[in-house]
Amino acid sequence: MIIQQFFIKWLSHSSYLLGGSNTCAIIDPTRDIKCYTDAAKTMGLKITHILETHLHADFVSGHIELAKEADARIYAPKSGNCNFDHVAVGGGDEFNIEDMQITVMDIPGHTPEGVGYVVVDKSRGEEAVSIFCGDTLFVGDVGRPDLFPGRSRELASDLYSSLHEKIMGLPDFCEVYPAHGAGSLCGRSMGAKRSSTIGYERLYNPELRILDEEKFIKSLTTDMPSAPDHFSRCSEINRKGPKLLKKLPKLSSFKPKDFKKLANKKNTVVLDVRSSDSFGGQHVPGAYHIDFSGNFVTFAGWIIPPDKDILLVVDSFEQVGEVVKWLRRVGLDDTIG
After folding, report:
1. pLDDT at 228 over 90
2. What share of the chain is helix, strand, coil (3-state, %, to 5)?
3. Are both 158 and 25 inside the same structural domain?
4. Of 47, 95, 147, 235, which one has the greatest count of Cβ atoms within 10 A?
5. Domain range for residue 273?
6. 289-330: per-residue pLDDT in tens?
7. Global pTM?
8. pLDDT at position 198, please?
9. What is the DSSP track for 83-99?
């Protein structure tokens, strides 16, 4: 059994390759999928499964892109009511990847449809050795239950049950692979470690040590950081299935006169990603400014109107590809030049 983690800065997102001798699954993939296809090729593995733990709120997933590229099946939570071709899974469902038995565990709380994938390596034994738990359990934290207006208390109660009646019933040596780490807004105070074990979290996770359900609910429904605007938008994009990247607009370069003409249209915004000093010295009137050297993707998802065409002001032509990649990760697909 092979487990390889892929970590993306700024989003603090972890995705995974779970492999055997010839085939593998990719769990919670990001939208730009080359890292997975390259890794599978290097290991001599065929990607056959794409496993989604929930409808991700902070980024657009790569499940559609990867299914198309690798001719693999998508497995997604049954209660997510996804609109794309997939295998709908719920608590108790099982499937195999070579010698690995994968059991689906319903673990709502962060979102209503969350599931975990519990792995038993049958070549070695009968006990669970790993769980891919999405955003239900983190290192040193748990998923925030307040992303759905009016449902915070209900989801916090669900989260308590998911943790104490399900996940914590796994063996202490069972490895915990969450979908996010320190810096993500999907929790409040995640640790910098990028994986853990059930036993470690039982001892050191402060939220898990709150055994009274009412106190747990109060802890998880007060003093949470604000949730960016793009969280609900990304969830819906992931439910419907994101557009393939090759179908998104091609970028053009514009001379100043043509750029100004486009910038003045009502359906267009200008996004300047240069340094604060450069923007302060001279900028296009009316432009948004988000310094690309900071937490660009979170602020872009939070403040850039999603229904507008985007014109970029950058330091260099070489920077454009990286900027556009990050914008697309939060569903801002309409960069035109």
Report:
1. no
2. 30, 25, 45
3. yes
4. 47
5. 248-329
6. 999 998 899 999 999 999 999 999 999 989 999 999 999 999
7. 0.95
8. 98
9. SSS-EEE-TT-EEEETT
Task: Specify the residue for token string 């049958």.
Answer: 122
Alpha carbon separation from 256 to 249, 251, 268, 316, 337 (Å, rounded): 20, 16, 15, 15, 12
pLDDT band, very low/low/confident/very high, at 249 (cuts 50, 70, 90):
confident
On whether both 123 and 49 belong to a single domain, the answer is: yes
Pairing label, strands 175-178, 268-272: unpaired
Determine the Cα–Cα distance for residues 41 and 58; give it in Å rounded to an integer. 28
Whether residues 180 and 315 share a domain: the answer is no
304, 288 contact by CB (below 8 A):
yes
Of 193 and 227, more confident: 193
Q: What's the full length of the chain, in residues?
A: 337
Please state, in angstroms and rounded to a whole number, the distance separating the CA atoms of residues 317 and 57.
30
- Identify the pLDDT of residue 127: 98
